[in-house]
Design goal:
Number of helices: 8
Strand content: 5-15%
Largest sheet: 2 strands, antiparallel
Helix content: 40-55%
Radius of gyration: 18 Å
Distance between the termini: 22 Å
Length: 238
């Protein structure tokens, strides 16, 4: 069995460490905000970037593009954002990207919410706010990929789900579980694959549950060359 490649530190390029034992956790200062954190993700030279600093620039990019774009295809929109030079290969910004592009595509296709109201910029920003709370590494450490959870966030906002709404809450959980099931593919983790798989499941879900057909063109992945851990032909969206 070949040795798996490691993720790389964005400060120095050296291997990232994902600690799983208590004695390997460290108290480190974020390289950008200089605040101290107890963390299990750092590089071999002890560099650390907190989730807020890691996502701050990309989340601003997501919000700005989704506010201004007229793109109707969620795959095209997701790729546009992920190709931005400040958008990283991996990171919690992908948790935010999923619901943002789904709701933006629905808005740009003039799709109304189940209650008949329009999807507003407020709804997209609310999805961004909720999804931005999902930390990095959630897929491996908590067994729930943030990009997959983002699809549930999108349906929650779309239907107006709350903890006390029966059917809308059920729908949000159903979609999350379907996205996670696809993401659990026994391959190396890839945030961009997770976003695409979540969008695919959302499109199917919208058709089944709401008779909504989003017009889209599936685009072959263009990020393989910048991802040293790409599974290539093994990947269902390569």
């Amino acid at each position: 069995m070949s040795k798996k490649k490691s993720d790389n530190c964005e400060i120095c390029g050296k291997d990232l460490i994902y600690a799983t034992k208590q004695e390997d956790y460290r108290d480190l200062y974020c390289e950008f905000c200089k605040k101290s954190f107890r963390t299990n993700i750092y590089c071999t030279d002890s560099h650390y970037i907190c989730d807020l600093c890691h996502s701050k620039g990309p989340i601003d990019i997501i919000e700005k593009i989704c506010e201004e774009t007229n793109i109707k295809d969620p795959f095209q929109l997701a790729d546009l954002i992920m190709k931005h030079p400040n958008f990283k290969v991996y990171g919690p910004e992908h948790h935010v990207l999923t619901p943002a592009v789904i709701l933006t595509a629905l808005r740009n296709n003039d799709i109304k919410k189940p209650d008949g109201s329009e999807i507003k910029l407020f709804d997209i920003k609310e999805a961004i706010r909720r999804a931005s709370k999902i930390p990095g590494g959630w897929c491996g450490f908590y067994g729930s990929c943030g990009a997959g959870m983002g699809s549930g966030v999108a349906i929650s906002v779309f239907t107006g789900a709350t903890p006390s709404t029966d059917y809308p809450r059920t729908l949000a959980n159903q979609l999350t579980s379907r996205s996670l099931n696809k993401i659990a593919d026994n391959l190396e983790h890839c945030c961009k694959r997770s976003v695409r798989l979540s969008i695919i499941e959302t499109i199917k879900f919208l058709r089944e549950k709401f008779n909504i057909d989003l017009d889209y063109k599936f685009i072959n992945c263009t990020f393989s060359s910048i991802n040293s851990k790409c599974e290539k032909e093994k990947c269902p969206v390569f």
